[in-house]
Amino acid sequence: MTDNKFTHIDKDGKANMVDVAHKDPQIREAKASGKILLSPTTIELIRDNDMKKGDVLTIAEIAGIQAAKQTSNLIPLCHTLMITKAEVKCKLIDNGVQVNTRVKCIGQTGVEMEALTAASVALLTIYDMCKAVDKNMTMEDIKLEEKTKVDL
């Protein structure tokens, strides 16, 4: 039987950061993805590295890594984690850019929020860098692909 109680709300309906002190540290990993749809002209500008703001894919990857490390500052009830790996890969696809992230830590709670935040911020960075030339960009399919935990 599952407990349907919300863990981030206390008995009085107030915000509650879950106490994970009783949990054993584990190797935790999460993967997330998303994509941004772009015009053919924008894709060509990115491919040719002709965007005025610089190398779109590299900057988006760095932004995603930075975002993973800042997740607890952005999501109010998210735990601060010691991330051991944050990987963000951006690649051109036929209709835009595909973003895939992988975040890892040794901790008492998962890193799915970090992986999702990395994907979201990488996509937002692409949007920011391309907004002057593409007014019809659409971000979509931001999702958690996988999360795992392994005992130490």
TrEMBL record:
Database matches in SUPFAM superfamilies: Molybdenum cofactor biosynthesis protein C, MoaC (SSF55040)
InterPro entries assigned: MoaC (IPR023045), MoaC_bact/euk (IPR047594), MoaC_sf (IPR036522), MoCo_biosynth_MoaA/MoaC (IPR050105), Mopterin_CF_biosynth-C_dom (IPR002820)
Gene3D superfamilies reported for this sequence: Molybdopterin cofactor biosynthesis C (MoaC) domain (3.30.70.640)
Coiled coil spans: none
Pfam families membership: MoaC
Domain Molybdopterin cofactor biosynthesis C (MoaC): 17-149
Record function comment: Catalyzes the conversion of (8S)-3',8-cyclo-7,8-dihydroguanosine 5'-triphosphate to cyclic pyranopterin monophosphate (cPMP).
The protein's name: cyclic pyranopterin monophosphate synthase
